[in-house]
Amino acid sequence: AESHDIHMTSAEVPSDVQVQAATLGNFAYPLEESKLCEVVYMRDFLSPVQLDIMRPIVEKLRPKLKKDHSFASKRLSCMLPVTSPAYSLWTSREMINNLRSLLRGAEVSPGDFPVEMRSYPVGASMDWHVDDLMYVEPQYELVYTMDNCSDSLTQYRDLNGNVHSIWAQPNSLIIIRADSVPHRVTEVGTGSRTIIKLLYTTTYSKTNLYAEVLDSAPWRR
Predict the structure, then answer these.
(1) How far apart are the first and last CA of the chain?
(2) CA dist., res. 132 & res. 138, Å (int)
């Protein structure tokens, strides 16, 4: 399989990150408008006002990050409290409408799986995988990058087996449809990355995997 850095703009990668990485403009894959979105990348996703809500909450949660004994290696995570203004932001009507537009009209709503904050320090990674199908219709997995001074890439494999790389800018959003696109997070060699991870879904009817994934969550231990 070939490997591609799409729309590379090396000037947008921090100068201390020595990596041939892809920094993308906004895009959706597949490109055909008639097809469901399987990968979406959106830069400058939150407004300045929304960022002002997020920043202090993220900093307050950092001491609560724990070792993530999951499929990922050396990752840290914690749960975003449902009483948090950040939780309200990510589940608001404004956010729902914005995401429905990004996903070509898919009638998505916030999933009832907890919202997580995750950190990838030096040495952390996540190997190739396809996201578990937790609802009877594939959910959309949202990864919002709060900050990123790392050399780590998010990579996904398209239908032809080609590998595409994303260096996720701070304040960018990646959406991947579950049970569809193989993807991974390459090992952090320098720096770190902090993300917010949540689900949006078109149905609340669950598969058996929902309970298994929930029970194995690191913040349940």
Answers:
(1) 39
(2) 9
pLDDT at 13: 44
Three-state secondary-structure class, residue 25: coil
Task: Say how far apart CA 145 and CA 194 lie, in whole Å.
Answer: 6
Output the six-digit token pair for 6.
Answer: 């799409």
Query: Alpha-carbon distance 59 to 43, whole Å?
Result: 22
The answer to whether 109 and 158 are in contact (CB under 8 A) is: no
> What is the DSSP annotation of 48-95?
HHHHHHHHHHHHHHGGG-EE--SSSBS-EEEEPPTTSHHHHHHTSHHH
pTM of the model: 0.87
Residue 8 has pLDDT above 60, yes or no: no
CA dihedral 153, 64, 56, 70 (to 10 degrees): 30
How far is 66 from 174, CA to CA, in rounded Å?
23
204, pLDDT greater than 50: yes
Q: The tokens 């008639």 sit on which residue?
A: 34
With DSSP H G I counted as helix, E B as strand and the rest as coil, what are the percentages for the chain, rounded to 5?
20, 30, 50
pLDDT at 5 over 60: no
